Write the structure tokens for this entry.
Amino acid sequence: MTTALKIHSSDHVATLLEAAVAGETIEIGDTAVIARADIPKGHKVALRDIAVSETIVKFGFPIGCATVAITAGDHVHSHNLATRLSGTLDYRYEPHATPRAAVLGARTFLGYVREDGRVGTRNEIWILPTVGCVGRTAERIAAEAARRHQGQVDGVHAFAHPYGCSQLGDDLGATRRMLAALAMHPNAGGVLLVGLGCESNQLSRLLKDVPDSYRGRIRAVVAQDAADEVEEGLAAVADLAAEAAKTKRQSVGLDKLVLGVKCGGSDGFSGLTANPLVGRMSDVVTAAGGSAIVTEIPEIFGAEQMLMDRAESREVFDSVVDVVNDFKTYFLSHGEPVSENPSPGNVAGGITTLEEKSLGAVQKAGHAVLTDVKRYGERIERTGLTLLEAPGNDAVSSTALAAAGATVILFTTGRGTPLGFPVPTVKIASNSELALRKPGWIDFDAGQVLTDGFEAAEEALIDRILAIASGAETAAERNGEREIAFWKRGVTL
């Protein structure tokens, strides 16, 4: 006998907590069905007969429709369930946010308070190349500077990328805005900008996007103008590190924390454990006066109304509609359906349609009121929950979260990934098997939700987050995994 979890009373399917073989009894609370086929762990079983073309419900919401008649006990997946998503939609403004009350007491962490009042979770020197041509130069400077200044600052890191030239218009502008936003990040106690000299992304123009108040902790080297660009870069980093070392950690409240929330390589458990657990972290931080940022616009298709219903105002609602429909138009203009998701890994893990994936993914935003919407490359301006425009790609969206101001990223995964990003990236496994199998990647096991409940997991995760915010390394940091990636939408010259 195996067990399955039914999430909402109106659901037509349940998620298997262990694999089932044909003929085996599957217990779902006080009821049971007989498996009519072998069904993998994390996949769905039908709880009742479902007619062809009938809408199938999970999480209390539609996740698609039956493509053939389904019998109770059947495996419900790609062979008999299909998306109902198509193009852009007209949405209704019916606000009814119901924020969850904070259940955890006052918490603090040790952060770096910056001149503008923002608080970093790291005091690092970041080296940002304006163009891909000097990416390796930036990495050479960072490697030697890290050796020279070990213990003086929390680290010296270069973030190479292939862009900054052969770009035009808004595409080039987006790259420039992203670099400028990263240069102002509170986790960077100092920033070295390394330019080539002849690139489209001219250093002088980039600096115009950085307010004067940030210039004191920014230095620049133009490689074509330098006798020895590496030595000039090292001298600049030495100056930055000496100044950054004067800032020490001090105790601050959760109102100074900015969480970015992200999921990658989801499985059938992501929407049951890791994502709703991260949603509780979003609720805790925003209730304390802090900030949470949710993104991955293509991975809220089918669940976007849930966020729209929590918009603080009609203006915020309209901004959500614009971002969602603009992203759908972006897909359609390239001849791609808006439902071109889930990924092969998602499907193997038990997720069938984009609606199902989105209904699980949107839970990372918790129940907080949606206070603002920002476009790609913009920085958050308000506390509370912000929706950020960015694609679902792990590296692109996580870089966008960092550029927007996230000082810690909570990254849920059911499949696992070693990737890390500019800010501490907390990998949260949706299932205990992954956490045990890949301890070098995973920082927290959300599979414990199924055995210990949400309250115990919530206490454990907030403690882990605050330890990391106070300086404890993530698995990605220990492994030297730090990447950035930009969303390129224009032509290449």
Observations:
- Residues 253-478 form one domain.
- The longest helix spans residues 314-333.
- The mean pLDDT is 96.
- The first strand starts at residue 2 and ends at 5.
